[in-house]
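Section: protein folds

Sequence with per-residue tokens
===
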Amino acid sequence: MSAGNVVERSRPPGVSQTDVVIEGIRQMIIDGELRSGDRLPVEKDLASALGVSRNPLREGVRALSMMGVLETRQGDGTYVTRLDPSMLLAPIGFVVDLQDGSGTHHLHAVRRVLETEAAALAAQQIAPAQLEAAAELLRHNEAELSLEEANHETVIENDIAFHRIVADAAGNPVLAALINALGGRTMRDRLRRSITQPGADETAHTEHLSILAALTSHDPDRARIQMAAHLFTVEDYLLKTHHEAEPLDE
């Protein structure tokens, strides 16, 4: 996009200049004035077009860079990114991190809805290499669980990687990005369950084997049901611990 093509935009009353920059650049992308891979106009021209000074422009660009919309290349200017869903949806994980424990079971309920459908989609098209990668993770967990003192963190990390393979195999990058943003942030809850609930890791491993079997047989209904059953066990644990943590009414 050339500087001469920048369209000047009016500034809404009562809106900060930084917000004007964020909204202005967003609208340029929506309108097709800026596309993935395009370089932003020089700072002076863009600031003039948006009706802001340079400092708010830099703040807005910095904010959009943190969102994965823009990337600044040292000595080469600022560009629109590939606008990949995994980058754009990653901040959801940051929002999740800020939530207190009272809403954890709600988070897992959303995760369950997404992952059950992802499993059904994956069953229809999962590639042999993805099936083998998933099976290898489960073999690693089986070996870990056979030890006298299994490393719970290793088991959970393999658990997350297994779910990531299923999400990617669904073939929907937006769905996969949402699942990955939520799933990785639930590690603390899963780790707590592994440590405090005897047999939780072994139960999860058996459930993963059932999910893998459904994926291998390319049975979407069975994959959906097996994934739902697996995630309900985690959700039930969180609901139970949530209720136990609630203070009694006086």
